[in-house]
Specification:
This protein is of the alpha/beta class. It has helices at about 10-25, 55-65, 95-125, 145-155, 170-180, 180-190, 205-210, 225-235, 255-260, 270, and strands spanning about 40-45, 50, 70-75, 80, 85-95, 135, 170, 195-200, 215-220, 240-245, 265, 280-285. Helix 9 (about 255-260) links the parallel strand 10 (about 240-245) and strand 11. It starts with 8 loop residues before the first helix and ends with a strand. Pfam families: QRPTase_C, QRPTase_N.
């Protein structure tokens, strides 16, 4: 599996452990316990529609935790395209183990592939207008952020802050208290090694953030025309900061924002609104 597209192994193990405990506590898989213990089967993970795959590591971990003797052979990797009928992987082993791991594996594959697929759609739409990268946000499912951000990478997007410790992002509520210049100064004094990112929703704030030496500007809730004006001003600065567009940007408008000249466009809907990709487990006749 491509390492750059994978979440940390520890995050995979932790998330799958929680999911399996949720599914099997307190008495285990009562239905699969009815099956003969020596009954062996082969099953295939098959996509029912189009998309981009993500979550292979989580599916593999689900089988490893249920029964490491089950053989799981992958035909795709995270980031690969899916069509209806694409075989993602083939599992061979005890039927009871395959059926016990099935739902946990499919939940992760469907959810994370949905995020990767949604991301790819935005990436392609943005590319029609310009070179802006598609960023995610912290609007993630609690406990699954590392997995969901990896799925964004699998879809061709890039990651915004992983958490509040990554860098400083001065938003409207911070700025309302200190003002941009004072807030940037405080950030430089307290956290001198961290990037300082400033939210701006007016051109005058862009001028102030540039003068204060911000490393990045979040241009929030502006039209593409307003964004282009801000980009022109920032590009004349002695040190052009990274420029992010955000706020209500849709598939219909993302190309126009990309054409405005920003470096990245953040979309909360990549992780909080993506539809699940339908993936099924087809068991061969015994």
């Amino acid at each position: 599996m491509t390492s750059a597209l994978q979440p940390p192994a520890s995050a995979v193990v932790e998330a799958v452990t929680r999911a399996i405990a949720e599914d099997l506590t307190p008495l285990g898989d009562l239905t699969s316990a009815l099956l003969p213990s020596n009954l062996v089967a082969t099953a295939r993970f098959v996509s029912r529609g189009q998309g981009v795959v993500a979550g292979c590591a989580c599916a593999a971990e689900a089988f490893r935790q249920i029964d490491p003797s089950v053989s799981l052979v992958w035909s795709v990797d995270d980031g690969d395209p899916l069509d209806a009928g694409t075989v993602l992987a083939t599992a061979t082993g005890t039927l009871a183990s395959i059926l016990t791991a099935e739902r946990t594996a499919l939940n992760f594959l469907g959810h994370l592939s949905g995020i990767a697929s949604r991301t790819r759609v935005f990436v392609d739409a943005a590319a029609a207008g310009g070179a802006a990268r598609i960023w995610d946000t912290r609007k993630t499912t609690p406990g699954l952020r590392s997995l969901e951000k990896a799925a964004v990478r699998a879809g061709g997007g890039a990651n915004h802050r992983g958490n509040l410790s990554d860098w400083i992002l001065l938003k409207d509520n911070h700025i309302a208290l200190f003002g941009i210049t004072e807030a940037v100064s405080r950030a430089r004094t307290m956290w001198p090694a961290r990037a300082v990112h400033v939210e701006c929703d007016r051109l005058d704030q862009v001028h102030e953030a540039l003068a204060a030496g911000a490393d990045a500007l979040l241009l929030d809730n502006m039209t593409p025309e307003q964004i282009a004006e801000c980009v022109a001003v920032a590009s004349q600065s002695a040190r052009r900061p990274l420029l992010e567009a955000s706020g209500g940007i849709t598939l219909e408008t993302v190309a126009a924002y990309s054409a405005a000249g920003v470096d990245c466009i953040s979309i909360g809907g990549l992780t909080n609104s993506a539809a699940v990709i339908d993936i099924g487990l087809d068991i061969e006749p015994l």
